[in-house]
């Protein structure tokens, strides 16, 4: 059994099927507790590890957590680990800015830069711990490259999905069918990497 260390329904929808496909019985951390650990790390790795250890400590079970965000080259890698609260500012740990506010801030900050200067990537780190003090956590990393549009497309996306254009698919992330997205996204890459590493552990 494994605890999925998130209360975000969108993350649950993406990650839970991947864990079940790998043979895990999955419980959500919200089945056990409502508390949220403060994401005050300086990297995706630190935040994901902190969330995984917290969930494992609270439940006594192995746990998997992820941390993810958007990095825009022309903005020096911002919003990065502050993607969920970009409009509020990096110093606002409460995360009180909406998806719409964050998206609009990215568009404003990029201004009218040409598409040659709008490269971006979704980044995700997934971390698995066997127990809260696990000295050898399993870490998976995923990146999904694209570019930021001048304006939003469908109006139906989550986070930055409406402005994140994937050239290879000629679609924004919000326009990609879920079954396709959940095979190639940054989050899928990171989680599948963890599952692959865990599989190799059992083979040894």
UniProtKB/TrEMBL annotation:
A Pfam short name: Ham1p_like
Q: What are the binding positions for Mg(2+) in this chain?
A: 38, 67
Top enzyme class of this protein? hydrolase
Record: active site:
67 (proton acceptor)
Per UniProt, the cofactor note for this protein states: Binds 1 Mg(2+) ion per subunit.
Question: Per the record, what are the reactions this protein catalyses?
Answer: XTP + H2O = XMP + diphosphate + H(+); ITP + H2O = IMP + diphosphate + H(+); dITP + H2O = dIMP + diphosphate + H(+)
Please provide the record's keywords in A-Z order.
Hydrolase, Magnesium, Metal-binding, Nucleotide metabolism, Nucleotide-binding
Gene Ontology cellular-component annotations: cytosol
- Which metal ions or organic cofactors does this protein require, according to UniProt? Mg(2+)
Q: Which InterPro entries match?
A: dITP/XTP_pyrophosphatase, ITPase-like_fam, RdgB/HAM1
Annotated function: Pyrophosphatase that catalyzes the hydrolysis of nucleoside triphosphates to their monophosphate derivatives, with a high preference for the non-canonical purine nucleotides XTP (xanthosine triphosphate), dITP (deoxyinosine triphosphate) and ITP. Seems to function as a house-cleaning enzyme that removes non-canonical purine nucleotides from the nucleotide pool, thus preventing their incorporation into DNA/RNA and avoiding chromosomal lesions.
The name of this protein is dITP/XTP pyrophosphatase
Q: What is the lineage of its organism?
A: Bacteria, Pseudomonadati, Pseudomonadota, Gammaproteobacteria, Thiotrichales
Q: Which gene encodes it?
A: rdgB
């Amino acid at each position: 059994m494994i605890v999925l260390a998130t209360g975000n329904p969108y993350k649950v929808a993406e990650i839970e099927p991947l864990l079940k496909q790998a043979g895990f019985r999955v419980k959500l951390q919200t089945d056990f507790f409502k508390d949220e650990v403060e994401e005050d790390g300086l990297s995706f790795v630190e935040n994901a590890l902190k969330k995984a250890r917290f969930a494992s400590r609270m439940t006594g079970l192995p746990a998997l957590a992820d941390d993810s965000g958007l990095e825009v080259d022309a903005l020096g890698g911002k919003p990065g680990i502050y993607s969920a609260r970009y409009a509020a500012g990096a110093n606002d740990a409460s995360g009180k800015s909406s998806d719409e506010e964050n998206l609009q801030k990215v568009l404003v900050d990029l201004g009218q830069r040409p598409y040659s200067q709008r490269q971006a990537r979704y980044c995700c780190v997934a971390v698995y711990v066997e127990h809260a003090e696990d000295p050898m956590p399993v870490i998976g990393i995923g990146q999904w490259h694209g570019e930021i549009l001048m304006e939003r497309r469908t109006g139906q996306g989550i986070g930055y999905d409406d402005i994140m254009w994937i050239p290879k698919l000629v679609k924004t992330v919000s326009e990609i069918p879920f079954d396709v997205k959940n095979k190639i996204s940054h989050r899928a890459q990171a989680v599948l990497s963890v599952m692959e590493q865990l599989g190799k552990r059992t083979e040894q």
